[in-house]
Specification:
The complex is a heterotrimer of chains A (275), B (302) and C (428). With 275 residues, chain A is mainly alpha-helical. Chain A has 13 helices and no strands. In chain C, strands 7, 8, 9, 10, 11 and 13 form a 6-stranded mixed β-sheet that branches. A 5-stranded mixed β-sheet of chain C has the order 2-1-3-12-6, with helices on both faces. Classes of the chains: A mainly alpha (275), B mainly alpha (302), C alpha/beta (428).
């Protein structure tokens, strides 16, 4: 009995410790964002603000925050849609049909995971110019989709391989085409893996930095990360202001997650990311 | 499938195969495959990225073999791989276990524990800079307040610890991701298995090792692969937090390549590093995936 | 009815005129790094406004790029033959790289034709000149590295401004005893620490030491006694606690150094003269406790203790060879370097590298003092990282940072630098 008590206590301690570790930086961030510039430097970091200073937030919003925010969301959403489409189609073929080069093609896609994106900057820059989409949000979609494909195909193919064949053989007998099987049978069954792919890529892309830096110039096209980086450059001295920017930038995804977390976990359940 | 020849052309496999692969292949070839030979080609030149390319054969490659910074970055990359896998995965599993039971406090914790993963790398870098700030930062101020002066460190400036400081922030960012993965995988394990084990008199500890871990194995393998690949080409947080410094103490291959190419005007040499990074990555990850798959088969055979 | 016709007339007139303007519309792109509000940003934007008012058919698109990523972005643009019409660099080595690649327009004749050649101070213009031709004009600031210090902290301990190295050590000892960091230094950026090294080399061995090594003349070498000695002094400073905890990872661009100064945790700050403007903008309550002195001499050293390290122009503006509207770009540079621009820089704490009677136009006493120091010095050594070709500049910065971290001995650092120089020149 006593042993169980000790165990529970340890469990609580661990849970609490992790709570502090994962949450305290956020408290620090929000707390600091409400302080004055010199106040932050003169007082201990954990001290509460002398008075809540909301002006930092106003300044960030006036700096074009929402524009950057919607740019980020828009580009990420379109890219994720294309990623899901392209990778599920490819994964269907790679996991359900046996053909001579399937292993090789799969290997090539997966090897793509190892490409360091930075070396593609100059070729991609040239390509973007040639396509006439430089300095537009369209410019980002190509590289975003491409660099998310390998990992998405890796996850989806792995998952689809484990989906039992019976259902689709029955459908095949009924004369269904590959496309029908793909859209009616396999896609619904792959929902968990698709959810994983969508979440994973959205989080990666909506805050992407290096392509946005290289392929965008006009302020009106910046994504959120570019905005963050620029705020940091512009108000380097004002740490509370930077923290206000970070808070605002983190907030949307947190809110979305809080509302959707049940679906997210449920979507990923039933063995997402199986080998 | 047996009656292939009698199918109309648009039902034939080859047509379907190509049609389904085209969208992915289009993006893939254009943005990913093409740059590899281009990079290799650049690696044969002395080139500042702007002006004339001067062909120098394999000079960049022989310089690379003698470049201590390259090997230091390589070593750092492997440290990052190992630490990521042995820290992020166990913590991910542990937290998933912790939240698996339906106690009253698990639900809010499920949300809070995930928060770090929802922030962008640049934002995390900016935040952790002030966690580690030597004078005004969270950690050192706290240590000062509780009087542990000798624990105060130069978290990002001391070459001996900077790499681990940054890895710590990387772990902070990614542990929640693995936690979600494992949480999802655990809910898929049928409850009856545990009940049966309980009836057989197995302790929770024992059923963890005999039921949970074996059934999580595929997820663990995949998580390890993701972690491996991500760590080998990691860039973001290092770039924002330490810039690879001081004196290359936290340099990774990707940051080193970026610096050489774009800050030092040595595009040829940077391309050499990139091709090397790509090659090393493909070799290491294919060895890893192959052996992981073999293990899995062995495991299922038992 | 009448009203409506009138409206229509006005609208069609407006449309017509705007269309005709549109027909000969000229667009110029300008890239620079001044994302912070301050002298440079104000001056550039004001010049654009004035220029666009006088040339309504020209539109200048100003792009501000964060300092850290500016070179990357410019380089990628040049690599793709897509550089902006007007761009900024720091003169010297990197500018030469662009020139050698055929990216920069020789604007000598245009400057003469526009009558703006004489706007610029010859000494400042020099860094934009290659083989007697002008490729870049100095715009922003005549800057020198000075030791800024808090007069209140000095007074509190009854200290005098140190004029020699040993006096400096005495001052440092007092500060360290009282838990005050002698120098606020943020060395993640490397060029910040490089200032100490450059001064020490100058004070130990005089300005010829660097010149000879860089130009590979008179048997000069980066592995010479002078450089090694300077490295030893530098590490002596580190060992004696001259710098704050964590200085190697602190970022100058994030003001991590100045925060120490503002909170009275540090007493001195070796930084370019732009620090005056920066501090004025960031924390003007500190101005009454702010003063500077010139880096102290070394007993028995060869360098004159009035020698300065700095840059006569700071930012150089160039016109792209491929620009379709070079004449307009050159005219714009005239606006950027006229008396209005000069006055604007002065008002915001900079010393313009162009314009006439600068000394008389400065009214702020601190600015006058800075101007006095700058104009009273025989030698202003240009920052090493701008004199050297980019590749070698990087080696200099890296080895100097390693010296600060005590990760290299002065001999090793000097040897590494010399080997890199040899490799660079042989290959060329």
């Amino acid at each position: 009995m006593l042993k169980k008590g000790v165990k529970t206590l340890l469990l609580y301690c661990f849970a609490f410790l992790w709570l502090v570790i994962s949450f305290y930086p956020f408290i620090f961030m929000v707390n600091t964002s409400l302080k004055g510039r010199m106040e932050f430097l003169m007082n201990p970091v954990w001290a509460a603000p002398d008075r809540f200073l909301y002006s930092n937030y106003l300044k960030v919003i006036e700096g074009g925050f929402f524009r950057f925010f919607f740019n980020s969301v828009g580009v990420a959403a379109v890219s994720v849609f294309l990623i899901l489409l392209a990778s599920s189609l490819a994964s269907y073929v790679l996991s359900r049909i046996r053909f001579r080069f399937s292993g090789l093609i799969y290997g090539a896609f997966v090897a793509g995971m190892m490409i360091p994106i930075h070396i593609t900057l100059i070729p991609v820059y040239n390509l973007t110019k040639a396509l006439g989409i430089y300095d537009s949000l369209l410019a980002l979609i190509g590289p975003y989709v491409s660099f998310s494909l390998p990992i998405s195909i890796f996850i989806l193919t792995g998952f689809m391989k484990d989906v039992p064949m019976e259902l689709e053989e029955a459908a095949f007998m009924d004369g269904a085409s590959h496309f029908q099987i793909y859209s009616k049978v396999l896609l619904p069954l792959s929902k968990p893996a698709l959810a994983t792919v969508a979440i994973y890529n959205f989080i990666m892309l909506w805050n992407e930095f290096i392509y946005a830096l290289v392929l965008l110039t006009s302020k009106k096209n910046w994504n959120l990360t570019m905005g963050l980086w620029n705020f940091q450059g512009q108000y380097s001295i004002d740490i509370p202001l930077i923290m206000a920017t970070l808070t605002l930038a983190a907030l949307p995804l947190i809110l979305i997650y809080v509302f959707l977390q049940e679906q997210v976990i449920k979507g990923m359940t039933s063995g997402a990311l199986k080998g | 499938m047996k009656k292939l020849e009698q199918l109309p052309w648009y039902r034939r496999e080859n047509f379907v195969i190509s049609l389904f692969l085209i969208p992915a292949a289009f993006f893939f070839v254009l943005y990913i495959v093409a740059p590899i030979p281009i990079s290799f080609y650049y690696s044969l030149f002395r080139w500042d990225g702007i002006g004339q390319k001067i062909f120098i054969g394999f000079q960049n490659w022989s310089e690379l073999m003698r470049d201590p910074v390259f090997f230091r970055a390589l070593k750092n990359n492997f440290i990052l791989v190992v630490v990521s896998i042995i820290v992020q995965l166990p913590f991910g599993i542990g937290l998933a276990l912790l939240l698996n039971g339906g106690r009253w406090w698990t639900k809010p914790l499920k949300t809070i524990y995930v928060l770090p993963y929802l922030m962008s790398s640049v934002a995390i870098g900016m935040l952790w800079r002030y966690v580690y700030e030597p004078t005004f930062g969270l950690v050192n101020m706290f240590l000062e307040a509780i009087g542990k002066y000798h624990w105060i460190q130069d978290w990002l400036g001391d070459p001996k610890i900077v790499l681990y400081s940054v890895i710590n922030a990387i772990n902070w960012q990614f542990i929640p991701f693995y936690m979600i993965l494992f949480m999802a995988a655990m809910t898929a394990i049928p409850e009856e298995l545990y009940e049966a084990a309980k009836i057989d008199g197995a302790s929770p500890w024992k059923s963890f090792w005999t039921i949970t871990i074996p059934l999580l194995m595929p997820t663990i393998t995949n998580a390890a692969t993701l972690s491996l690949v991500g760590s080998l080409k990691y860039f973001d947080l290092i770039h924002v937090l330490s810039g690879g410094g001081p004196s290359h103490a936290s340099e990774l291959l990707a940051t080193y390549m970026y610096k050489r190419s774009f800050h030092h005007f040595r595009m040829g040499y940077g391309s050499t590093i990139a091709v090397a990074l790509f090659t090393i990555g493909v070799v290491v990850s294919s060895i890893f995936m192959r052996s992981a798959r073999r293990k899995e088969y062995e495991g299922s055979a038992l | 009815m009448k009203k409506a016709t009138l409206y229509l007339l006005v609208i069609s007139l407006l449309l017509g005129s705007s269309l005709s303007v549109y027909a000969q519309q000229v667009n110029l792109t300008l890239w620079h790094i001044h994302t912070n509000e301050g002298a440079a940003q104000y001056t550039i934007q004001d010049a654009i406004r004035r220029f666009e008012a006088d040339y309504p058919n020209v539109k200048i698109e100003e792009v501000q790029i964060i300092n850290d990523e500016y070179k990357t972005k410019l380089m990628i643009a040049m690599g793709a033959n897509d550089e902006p019409d007007i761009f900024m660099s720091w003169g010297g080595g990197p500018l030469e790289t662009y020139i050698n690649a055929g990216k920069v327009w020789d604007m000598t004749d245009a400057l003469n034709n526009e009558g703006i050649y004489d706007n610029f101070l010859p000494v400042a213009l020099d860094l934009g000149v290659v083989n007697g031709r002008v490729y870049g004009v100095p715009i922003v600031n005549m800057a020198s590295a000075l030791v800024w210090y808090r007069t209140d902290i000095f007074e509190r301990f009854g200290l005098e401004v140190p004029t020699t190295y040993s006096e400096l050590l005495d001052v440092m000892e007092v500060f360290n005893k009282n838990n005050i960091t002698p120098f606020a230094l943020a060395n993640a950026n490397k060029w910040t620490g490089s200032m100490y090294f450059m001064y020490l080399v100058d004070r130990v061995a005089g300005p010829e030491e660097f010149y000879n090594a860089m130009m590979r003349v008179n048997g000069g070498s980066f592995a010479s006694e002078g450089f090694i000695k300077a490295g030893e002094y530098l590490q002596d400073l580190v060992r004696k606690g001259a710098f704050p905890r964590g200085f190697q990872s602190m970022d100058e661009d994030l003001a991590q150094s100045r925060n120490l100064l503002y909170t009275e945790r540090a007493a001195m700050y070796l930084m370019g003269s732009w620090a005056y403007g920066t501090i004025k903008a960031e924390n003007d309550s500190m101005l009454e406790h702010l003063d500077f002195f010139v880096f102290p001499g070394i007993d028995g050293g060869k360098g004159d203790p009035s020698n300065l390290v700095g840059t006569p122009g700071d930012n150089y503006f160039s016109i792209a060879q491929k620009s379709a509207h070079k004449e307009y770009a050159a005219k714009f540079l005239g606006y950027l370097s006229d008396d209005t621009a000069a006055q604007m820089l002065i008002d915001n704490g900079h010393i313009p590298p162009f314009g006439s009677n600068i000394g008389e136009r400065i009214s702020d006493p601190m600015m006058q003092k800075i101007y006095g120091a700058v104009s009273g010095s025989d030698t202003v050594q240009l920052w090493y990282d701008q004199s050297l070709p980019p590749e070698l500049a990087q080696v200099h910065l890296d080895t100097t940072q390693a010296l600060f971290g005590l990760e290299m001995t002065p001999e090793e650092a000097a040897k590494t630098m010399e080997e890199a120089a040899k490799r660079y020149h042989n290959e060329k």
